[in-house]
Amino acid sequence: MPLNFEKSKNIYFLHIRRNFKGQLFAMRTIFNGLLTILISLLVFTSFNYPTQDTSTRLLTGAWSAGTPENQTIAIYSGNVFAIANYDITGKKFLSSYGGTWKVEGKQLIRKIEWNSMDSSTVGTEMRSDIKLSAKKLNIPSLKENFERMDDGTPGELAGAWIISGNFINDKASKRANPFYPRRTMKVLSGKYFHWIAYNVATKQFLNAGGGTYTTVNGKYTENIHFFTKTSESIGKSLEFNYSFIDGEWRHQGQKSTGGAMDECWTKREILEK
């Protein structure tokens, strides 16, 4: 009896150990399977739902919508946006608005700094759901569908610049208050530009102009698509010299309305610090 009992006991514990190992193997298999599914879901999500940083990079650049008779160009550069609406064939300026922007999840959040059509919107925030891809931008609530014109390249002047003074004898003479209350800003993507003059305190829109540009061998060339001061400048190509001095843009040449200019432009983010 003792021998049979001992043998039975050993068989019993061997069976338990084997059963435990089998259960452990099954649990590991299930765990590995679940882990694989989780990783696959995370990869799928990352490819199908852009992160905030990805959306910001995708949105950066110039976008176009409409027809030549009712053209809309939206520029998103840094954290500043500028949107112009104009009739390029009829040489008519229609509207300009813009300010700062950011993306949170699937929402585009824009804070208005100027609006030629409605100054009461200045200081307000616009929140819009967006559908964004490499080549398309859709804002369903506004029924706007844009196509990409550039991704912030190849122009060397992409960004938001504030005119901060003039160069006199090759030295910058700065204005006391270039950023407030009156502000003259030029927002550039890789190929498009939009300049605006407005008053932050009074919410007054003053002037605007824009179109396409190139930067080649120290020459900055603007092709004017809209201009509030005079329609006679629309369609002109203006060539200027450009260079960078201590990070600032030296803008030299002849004004579209006549007369020499030698301007100093400073990156907006520097003045905002």
Helices, by number, come to: 3
The helicity comes to 10-25%
Element string (H = helix, E = strand): HHEEEEEEEEEEEEEEEEEEH
Shape: globular
Please report the total strand number as a whole number.
18
Radius of gyration: 30 Å
User: Which residues form runs of ≥5 with pLDDT under 50?
Assistant: 39-49
Q: What's the arrangement of strands in the largest beta sheet?
A: 6-5-4-3-2-1-9-8-7
Q: How large a portion of the residues is in β-strands, by DSSP E?
A: over 45%
| Structural class by secondary-structure content | alpha+beta
Straight-line distance between termini: 92 Å
Whole-number average pLDDT? 88
Would you kindly provide a written description of the structure presented here, covering whatever features stand out?
The protein is 22% helix and 51% strand. By secondary structure, the protein is of the alpha+beta class. A hairpin with a 4-residue loop joins strand 8 (136-139) and strand 9 (144-150). The radius of gyration is 30 Å and the shape is globular. 28% of the residues are buried. The model is unreliable at 39-49 (pLDDT under 50).
